[in-house]
């Protein structure tokens, strides 16, 4: 992991891509509350950043803290850089901090069976135990989203009586959010990302 306090290269990328306009704070659910000119400006600047950042720079941000990873995940999603799929899967499986839902949004935006596989790998590792992780509900809700998009039923075994989701929910009753309700948020975030991706597709070729 790289730390901004001792890494000038990372600090420069944070200045350029993470903190402008408090971007890292407005990505995710906060973006759904934007409207009018404020929303339009945020979208334009996010799309511009997705076009400016290079693959190497994205890789560096993904080695940083949660703010850097969160921002990088969204830039990856907007620009459709599927070459980062495995790296995002690794970070998700490491379950190393808050706001891991941004990693899920990137996988949901890619929207393939390979992305569902990564989500299932996470669930198979972390649902059998009662431990609370940052992202069980986000991961499972994203799998529900991908099932709907792909016409699959990958989530069904987890939801079945005695399935892993049922077991984990029973073991952690105070930490569980309704995955179907959270899935609606995933749907909205993917719609927002799709809007940005359409604008990105009309820009100059990316780095």
Notes on the structure:
The model has no long low-confidence stretch (mean pLDDT 91). The longest helix is centred in the C-terminal third of the chain and has 23 residues, at 179-201. The protein is 66% helix and 0% strand. Helix 6 (85-94) runs antiparallel to helix 7 (101-110) and helix 7 (101-110) runs antiparallel to helix 8. It has one domain (4-201). The protein contains twelve helices and no strands. The chain starts with 7 loop residues before the first helix and ends in a 6-residue tail after the last helix. It is globular and about 50 Å long. The chain has 207 residues and is mostly helical.
Total number of distinct structural domains: 1
**How helical, in percent, are the residues?**
55-70%
Through-space gap between termini: 24 Å
Average pLDDT score? 91
Number of strands: 0
H/E element order = HHHHHHHHHHHH
Low-confidence stretches: none
Largest sheet: none
Which range does the strand content fall in? under 5%
Which radius of gyration do the C-alpha atoms yield? 17 Å
Shape: globular
Can you count the helices? 12
Structural class comes to mainly alpha
Concise description?
This protein is mostly helical and 207 residues long. Helix content is 66%, strand content 0%.
